[in-house]
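User: Predict DUF2470 domain-containing protein's structure from this.
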Amino acid sequence: MPGHEPNSPFADEVVAGVLAHMNGDHADDSLVICKALGDRPDATAAVMTGFDDRVAIFDVTVPEGVVEMRFDWDRPIKDRTDVRMAVVAMFRDAQARLGITPA
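Assistant:
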């Protein structure tokens, strides 16, 4: 399954649910994460393509094409709740780096 990393502790339906939520409801947040944490202020789009207990994975559109970015989680991830908390932490860090005031 795309997005399901080898040896991932997450069931296919959990991965699919998280990816659908991130790409459907939080595409702009993913772009903020990739611009700041991936040091690509020129990014124009980001799609979360996968994750496991160690990393979040995005395909990011930049002027030269699409590049993959992987970001380590800031904590051990063992369930869907952990994923949500870690993505929020990543987003808040990205906002701070870009000087964006949280809404």
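Residues 12-97 form a domain with the Split barrel-like fold (CATH 3.20.180.10).
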